[in-house]
Amino acid sequence: MSLKRVLALAAAAVGAFSWAGAACAQEEVIGIAHDKQIGMQPPVTSIADELEFIHNWILTPIIFAIAIFVMVLLLIVIVEKTVAAKAPAPARARLSDISKHPVPVGLW
User: Fold this and answer.
1) Contact yes or no for 44/30 (Cβ under 8 A)
2) Gap between the Cα atoms of 16 and 6, Å rounded
């Protein structure tokens, strides 16, 4: 192996390690997730900042409003079904009661 090739490999290795050391020396690396991070990563560009605003202040409240609305509807149905289940059962209709109905049953 020539001296030129050895020096080139050594320079490449030193360069690679210096870049890796600089990357490890940064306190906060942009673009990766961090421990206990909730939500989006910190925005770097103005477009990402606008998207984060739309997500946090427009879309999230809409999603919560829809979820609360659906939960209220479910609770209403549950309460109505529970009350209907506790109500006394209606008496069975007899044939003589049906014949006294003001509207002929055969038209239904």
Assistant:
1) yes
2) 15
Digit-coded pLDDT (tens) for 28-67: 677 777 788 888 888 889 999 999 999 999 999 999 999 9
The contacts of residue 33 (CB under 8 Å, 6+ apart) are: 41
Higher pLDDT, 83 or 97: 83
Residue 85, CA distances (Å) to 40, 52, 93 in order: 47, 48, 20
Domain ranges of the chain: 46-86
What type of residue sits at position 105? V
Q: Within a 13 Å sphere around the CA of 77, how many CA atoms are in the beta-carbon half? A: 6
Contact 72, 81 (CB under 8 A): no
Do residues 49 and 43 touch, judged by C-beta distance below 8 A?
Answer: yes
Is-above-0.85 flag for pTM? Answer: no
Contact between 35 and 41 under an 8 Å Cβ cutoff? The reply is no
Q: What's the rounded Cα separation, in Å, for the pair 84 and 19?
A: 72
